[in-house]
Every structure is written in C-alpha cells, then in structure tokens.
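Sequence only, no structure available. Ideas?
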Amino acid sequence: MIRIAVCEDSIPVQAQIEDHISEMLTDCPVEVFSSGEELLSFLSREKRRFSLYLMDISLPGISGIETAAAIRERDPYALIIFITDYKEYVYEVFETLPYRFITKPIDKDIFHKAISDAVNYITDRGELFHFHVDRVQYQIPFQEIIYFESNLRRVTLHTGKEAFSFYGRLRDLSEHLNPILFVRTHASYLVNMEYIRSIRDAEVLLSTGEHIPVSRKYRPSVRDKHLEYMKWRAAQ
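Reply:
I predicted one. Tokens follow.
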C-alpha cells in the first residue's frame, strides 16, 4: 500500500494538499507533519516508511532539504516531491534525488498529475523479479536491483546488500523486466537506470560508485533510453 507523508508548516496548505490527495486516492494513508523534526522523530519512533514524501523546503527549524537528506539516508527508494515558493532551490536539492517540484501556489491539475505519475512510478518499480537459486525461489523488487552481470551461462543480480548468481542469459531476462527501467549497456551488463548518475562514452557511473562498461554497440541506445527514462520519471 502506498503511504504518503506531508511535511508543511502552513495549515491552509496542509488542508489543500490533503483535499487534493483524497480526491485521487480515497484509501491512501496520509500523515501530516508541521516540521522536519516532527517527521524525523516519527520515523525514528514508529520505524515506518512512507512511499512518497511531499516536502516544503522552507520549514521552521531544519529545512526541507536537510529533512529530505536524512530521509534519503534511511530509505533510498522513497520518492520526494518538493513544494516550494522558490525555483532557485532546484540546484540545492540535487543530492536528495527529488522526484519532482511543485511550486506555490499549488495548481490542482499540476498536483494531480505529479501524484498520479508518482503512484505509477512506485507501482512500476515495485514489480518483482522472480528467479531460482538451487531450487529456492526468490523475488526481488525492481527498485532494489542495481544491475545484472553475465558470465557465460550464469547471471549475477546485484543489489545494494547482496548478490545472487543463477543460470540464465541477459537476452532472456529482458522479457521479464520493465523496459522503461532497465537498459542493456554491454553484452555482459543490464542496468537499472534509476542508479545511473552519469553516462560517458565507454561507461556509466552508478550512484553506488561503480563503473559499468558501455560497449560501442549499445552506446547510442543507452543514451536514447536513458533520456526516455528521465522524461518518464520527471514528466511535467
């Protein structure tokens, strides 16, 4: 179930956001916080995660940017949408990997589209990849898969915490993966574009710090598909 946290100190804006969400998602749990300290205290106390955070940048006490950075350390998969009066903050929040920005005063249609896109994005990357290792079946959410690496007839699935090796071919894996999220960079590598931070001629740099080779054959398609992914992820 998708759960949403709203962090906004203005009571009228809180009410407006809640009304807009309830119009779209009738059964979606929403928690409202008036400061970053209140939100982070709740996360520490309750040990819960939210799927989506709607975060005001200008908050009393610690800023929305600082709050988002703390959230990102706890949960690399959460989506964060910043709500702000100031467009110049765009460059300051890059490291928190925001999903989108909504400027104040909040336009209802823009807000609805942002939430609809976010819900679809969460659903797509939450799909599960199924595979077997020594007759044991595993299922890993797409969002946790960083890349696949092949060597002869074996494929290694890499996540941030562990790696799984099983028999298979990358060509066959493509049929079971969301083509919007994954791109082939090399005969031996298939990468989740959520983790790509930069693309160079012969490699991609991942958010994990790893360098994945890009062969001449796949170079044009890597750039084209990553551009399509970025448009889809942050479509306005």
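The mean pLDDT is 89.
Hope that gets you unstuck.
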